[in-house]
Amino acid sequence: MVHFNIPQRFRERYAAIVDDPEAFFASLSRPLPKAFRVNTLKADVDKVLERLQGYGIEAMNVAWSDDAFVTPSDKTGATLEHFMGHIYIQELVSMLPPLMLKEEIKANPDMTVLDACAAPGSKTTQLSALMKNRGLIVANDAAFNRLKIIKHNLEKLGCMNVAVVNHDIRFFKTDMQFDCILLDAPCSSEGTIRKNREVLSRWNEKEIISTSGLQKHMITRCYEMLRPGGLMVYSTCTFAPEENEGVVDYLLSKSDCKLERIEVKGLKLSGTVKAWKDRTFASDVAKAARVWPHHSDTGGFFVAKIRKPKEGMS
To answer: Domains of the chain, with CATH numbers?
Structure first.
């Protein structure tokens, strides 16, 4: 096992809210499982698995997603299937936000969806597959230099229902209305430590506070662009309550939104933090969910489903 230094303040913060601190901190030193998603826009799951097996690549299905797999092999990125866009290498927890919209898409496959912070396009391409290239996805990112990789992935995976735009989501015009919005917000990225150890070397609480302020602006503007009756998914890859429960609690205090309980059959989800420092969060925040890395051998994640009431029903 590779050992590395975890800042004492980091240990103090999260030992207070995680169920098993020893297992949690130990998990951060282990590499992430290699995972990929079969792109159903271009390929059949069974045929892809058969071809991978022919290369000597074994893949195990993930219990909570028909299209997601883990493998001990490090060769998937060198396969023809990867080159052709039949598979997409993607972290398991990164696949959760689009799956939160799966039932909405089934009910209305021609919907309009905003992916507010889309680069590099992992969730955008997953949404496109779920929508079977119907409807419209607006894939936005504030960083112009990241649009190239979004466009590359969209073309490679055969996503035909996506419009790519470059704008700061905080300044979108609110007369633009969407049936669903995915806000996978920029964050302090603590949940990616297993992939990128550099996160710990630059970790500090000032960045957490600053980032949470940005997230509050983003979630407020996105909610304004959500149609009455629409669903927004808010997610981060961090453990910080300020960036997770605190942001959702802020939106609850500023709007008429309602949270919906999250269940993912086959994946262990944990409850949210009820209070942090001097703040007790609204009871509705408990309907969101956390994913701790030591529970299901994944990265760390937070996700919330936020519903805007239909007009006259708030």
So the answer is: 92-307 (3.40.50.150)
